Every structure is written in structure tokens, then in C-alpha cells.
Amino acid sequence: MTATIEYTDQGHGKAVIFIHGFCETKEMWGKFIEAFSGEYRVLCPDLPGFGESRWFEETISMEQAADMLRDWIKDLGLEKPVVIGHSLGGYVALAMAALMGDELGGLGLFHSTAFADDEEKIGVRNRTLTFVKKHGVRVFVDSFVPPLFTEAHRASMDDTIQEVVQLARKTTYEGLVSFTKAMRDRKDRMDILRGFSAKKLMIAGVLDGAVKIDSSRKHQVYVDYYHELPNAGHMGMFEEEKETLKMVREFLEIG
Q1: Mean pLDDT in each 10-residue stretch from start to end of the chain (255 residues)?
Q2: Which of 6, 30, 55, 155 is deepest in the core (most CB within 10 A)?
Q3: SS3 of 60, please?
Q4: Whole-structure pTM over 0.85, yes or no?
């Protein structure tokens, strides 16, 4: 089954694609669009089942999502776009790198990982599926989003967190279920990260509860630009906005 990819497209020049994470939407990249669209063509898609992109099946794979985005890129005539993905978006970006190779001009992992889920994380995914089937999307996302921010940021960024929760509520049941399964079942992509020939970026949160910093540090030798945010959890683009904008700008400007 195919999906129509809804997206924003602003600016001119070299294409940079920002892919959102799980239970997120293209709107989360608003500050990045604002910061970079004066110099680059900035595109932000909604993954199938999130935001405005529809998906009506309870299964999908990272490879399917990557194939859809490759077709979308070809339809738009983009040449060697840089792809930067947050969390789930990073898993999709890695699948795109496996599929497209040197058709991409760069790869960024933002609070993401090339490792497959371990047994503990697989258990979390399975419990998510059980919970969502019992309680529905809204109850899940309302409890899922706030802990992505550190406790200190939760106290000071309540308005931002509530905005992210509102975006998360756009998630369809099918999108949530299908991508939970896809994350659980995805392949280890460390060989893809290691072999990808264009420039590579990784931004990690030292206090990230979803992607542990010890795991992130194992990627450091395989990327060109590795950064840690000492006070960030899983949502550095909000928690450390100025720093992450600076890191992405430096990455885009080089090479």
C-alpha cells in the first residue's frame, strides 16, 4: 500500500530533509525551518500515520518507509539531499542510507541509534502495543511525551511540552501500532553507518532515557561530527535549541 507524504518545503539551495520521531510531526522542526531556509531548501515530511500523512495498515517496515521517501525525493527532483532524523526519524534515515547510498549528501542522527532494539527495549515496544490497544492513542501520547524531556526541563518548558503533546495527538492508531512494530523489528544498521561515505552527524543527550548515552558513545568513531548535550534528554531540539541549531549549521556548512 502506498502513502501520500505530506510535507513542508521552504527555501532554496541544497536540500536538507528533517525527519521527525515517533508520535511527532513535521511541525516540530519549526525553528530549524526558520533558521536554515534562508540558505537551504528545507523539507520536513510527515511519516505515514503521523501528522497529515495517512496510513491505514498496522504493519510497516523501515525499508518500506525509506522506499516511500526515496520515491518522494525522486518526485521532487532532489539531488543528494542531506537527511537528518530524530529518534525514529534516524532509523528511517539509516534505512534510506542503506537503500540510496551515495544518492544522499549527508546523514544526521538526532537522539537516535544505529543499533537494533535489545531485549529490554523489545519488551517496552510490546508493552506499548498492549497499552495502546487497551487505552488508545491519546492516553498513550499524553503519558509518553513529557518524560522525553528531562525533569528540569519539564518544570520550565510546560508550554512547549503541551504543544508537542498536541502534535502527538495527531498520530493515528495505525501509525502508532505499525511503527512500534517497525522499531521493535528493525535491523542493526551499524554497518550502514560505518560504510556511509558522505558526512555524518550525531547529536546525543547525556540525560536521554530513550537512547542511552553509553550506546550513543559507541557510534562516535563512525561519524564525522559527534556532539553531546550535557543537560538534554531526548528532545534536544527544544531543550537545547540554540546549541543544536549551531551544531546542525556547522555540519551543513562543512563539505
Answers
A1: 85 98 97 98 97 90 97 97 98 98 98 98 98 97 97 94 96 96 98 97 98 98 97 98 98 88
A2: 55
A3: coil
A4: yes
The answer as to whether 64 is a domain residue is yes
CB 245 within 8 A of CB 252: no
Element (DSSP H or E) covering residue 18: strand 15-19
DSSP result, 195-243: H--SEEEEEEETT-SSS-HHHHHTTGGG-SEEEEETT--S-HHHHTHHH
In what helix (H) or strand (E) does residue 118 lie, and over which residues does it extend?
none
CB distance 204 to 223 below 8 Å: no
Q: Cell 497529515 sits at which residue?
A: 52
Q: Please tell me the total count of domains within the chain.
A: 1
Cell triple for 128: 506499548
3-state secondary structure of 154: helix
